[in-house]
Amino acid sequence: MQRRAVFNNRILPYFLLLPQLVITIVFFFWPASQAIYQSVLKQDPFGLRTTFVYLDNFQTVLSDPLYIESFQVTIVFSVLVTLFVMSLALLFAVMADRQIRGAQTYKTLLLWPYALAPAVAAVLWMFIFHPSIGVFGKAINSTGIKWDYQLNGAQALLLVVVASSWKQIAHNFLFFLAGLQSVPPAVIEAAMIDGASAWKLFRSVLFPLLSPTTFYLITINLVFSFFDTFGVIHALTHGGPGRSTTTLMYKVYMDGYVNLNLGLSAAQSVILMIIVSVLVWFQFRFVEGKVHYT
Amino acid sequence: MKRTLLVLLTLVAFLLVLSACAPAPTPAPTAAPPTAAPKATEPPKPTAVPVQPTATPKPTEAPKPTTAPAPTATAAPRPTPPPGRVTVEFWFGLGKPLGDVLEAVVMDFNKSQTKYYVDAIYKGAYPDTMNAAIAAYRAGKAPNIVQMFEVGTATMMAAKGAIKPVYELAKETGITLDPKIYIPAVRGYYREGENMISMPLNSSTPMMYYNIDAFKKAGLDPTKPPKTWTEVRAAAKKLVDTKATTCGLTFEWPTWTQLENFSALHNVPLATKANGIMGMDAELKFNSDLHIRHLQTLMDMGKEGSFKYGGRDGAATVLFPSGECGIIHASSAARARIKNESKFEWGVTFLPYYDDVKGAPINSIIGGASLWVMNSPGRTADEYKAVAEFFAYISKPEVDARWHQETGYLPITHGGFEKTKADGFYQKNPGADLPYQQLTRTQPTENSLGLRLGNMPEIRNIVYEEWEKAFQGQQTAKQAMDNAVRRGNEVLRAFEKLYK
């Protein structure tokens, strides 16, 4: 299966890689190095006074109980989003993979949420679940359950988890579907001849064969919930009520953009960068070994 | 199958592009130019006599008749500066439709000029405009003028070198910008000693709006709106008990209406050093017995169902025009929105107070934004002159009056108020002069001049967080206030350290 392109020209491969390399350097390495530089400085917003403070910013951040609180919120949030997204996406993919009428339509419809910008998605959710003006929000309240995500931390967290997941399910669905469709029919037929039930087929044949996809998606979803859920949180809850939906990423934004404390914000970005790097490394190092590749 | 997926992926990519092109959601406008006939029936009797302006406005030029075109809300491309004119950049953060009025004012200025030209550019909401200006300054490309929300005042003022104070601008250019023509409560927010640091533009103050139809339904007298907190609580409770509304009281911008203006009205300090105006070493003082008592009142009202917390910043505004809450404390600039969206009769009156507090109520304080002059390498004297001319222009009574009438913001000058009165605007729009009266009913004390606290947006968020925990029953009123003061003071000390 392995195919390897062979280039006779020594420069051509580098030339072909150049656009991607430039993008990576300009949009990743350069800002990242700036963040690291900024994280050891204390500076006013206008950059009129700058002091080198060694690792003071890191010390401030790590000794801040509110940072630890945000850390806990982030863990709960990410785990919930990942679980939610992957289980539903897998369910939908298995459903859509079957030979049913209109499968194509379902597939297309399921992909739509992915096309929405996070902020737009969040506004839609707000109009559905707002306790006073939202359709469902009002309905829930009329059943006697006190629904008010603006004042109930648990409900707020639930809402941002669901809204973030909703957006991400489409992406996961696509990968699971592709994964299912690349399972060789011969394997499935063999299992069916052996008399495997639908559940047995899924559990013993399809799911193991999907493990590369699953593994990839876990990584992507964790990174997504760490970094890419800002828009939803910002549009729905502003990190509140209290601090119940202030994730690490949202705190970076608040400290940097609203509170204009660049050093502190940069230090948090660096910590976040380290956390995600460790996470990815860990997954590749320890989880990948247990994955079946076809 | 591969092909189907490819098609699907292309579709997704296409939709992504589409959604990226769609305009970002903008927060609902809080006001529009008031045009329709008045809706409020019985304007509440003013409880304080309006303070007569002490200074006569001295416009620097003979007032030119402004052939003011109505602000056409077309998304026409920005006009390019005519050649040969000294052009200055003006970044603003006022969204539609208020931003359109601002652009119309700028356009009129440009028409009245042959030498100078102001290029007004919308840069997103206030925090975005602030960040854009900061980034531009760091890159050596700062705009000549930037509009900055009032809570950014301390940050701007501390940025010595990055900004040019308005009094220095007046001195250097020789163009008169007399501080005395501006309303004290407006000027006081943006001054250092007697010197104006930034140019006031859009100022508002919180008022109490109430639903007259709901009042009638609940058997309350709409001609006698509640004045004190005891009366407000009783009225709110009655509204809910009689099922006239599902929620009695709510408020937008919770810290601005219930903490900052609450302190001013009762003449108690929010912070030492005249709320920070006299120095960066101010300490927060809003965990006094009165402040705790007020939060406790709100918590009790929440428990009995007569008050509903509607969320941070402007999130609660919608609860009033929707008819859900019978009483709201909201910005005077929310007037036009309430007028446009409410399907019931409503009235407006002064903010309530605790009548057992001696001397209460005094004047309220403002919110809104002001204009800052920014320095940048390569500025010419002519550019500063253009800025000063523009500031003199917007301070003219007729320009100010039009700004006030079309936006619902307060007049910034005494002249603008007098002109509006002479125009008969307040007869046609009952209650529209109450914000001015509330703001000017007493001479400002050191507790009601305004605020100048470092990183005020951060402090506001801290208060939101602690209050929300209290409203959820996770802590007592005293704990909430003590925590907010302690955390807020940490913010102030960090800010102070930055500039030492």
Characterize the structure shown:
The complex is a heterodimer of chains A (about 290) and B (about 500). Chain A contains 13 helices and two strands, in the order αββαααααααααααα. Chain A starts with 11 loop residues before the first helix and ends in a 7-residue tail after the last helix. Chain A has about 290 residues and is mostly helical. A two-stranded antiparallel ribbon of chain A has the order 1-2. The model of chain A has no long low-confidence stretch (mean pLDDT about 90). Chain A has helices spanning about 10-40, 55-60, 65-95, 105-110, 120-130, 135-140, 155-180, 185-195, 200-210, 210-225, 230-235, 250-260, 260-285; strands at about 40-45, 50. Chain B folds into two domains: about 85-205 and about 365-420, Periplasmic binding protein-like II (D-Maltodextrin-Binding Protein, domain 2, 3-Layer(aba) Sandwich); about 205-365 and about 450-500, D-Maltodextrin-Binding Protein, domain 2 (3-Layer(aba) Sandwich). Chain B is built from 19 helices and twelve strands. Chain B is globular. The interface between A and B is large, with 43 and 52 residues.
Strand content of chain B: 5-15%
Beta strands of chain A, count: 2
CATH class term of the largest domain in chain B: Alpha Beta
Question: pLDDT under 50 segments of chain B (min length 5)?
Answer: 5-75
| Average of the residue pLDDT scores of chain A | 88
Shape of chain A: globular
- Provide the helix percentage of chain A: over 70%
SSE order of chain A in H/E notation? HEEHHHHHHHHHHHH
H/I helix tally of chain A: 13
Kindly report the name of the CATH homologous superfamily of chain A. Answer: MetI-like
At CATH's second level, what is the architecture of the largest domain in chain B?
Answer: 3-Layer(aba) Sandwich
β-strand amount of chain A: under 5%
Q: What is the CATH architecture descriptor of chain A? A: Orthogonal Bundle
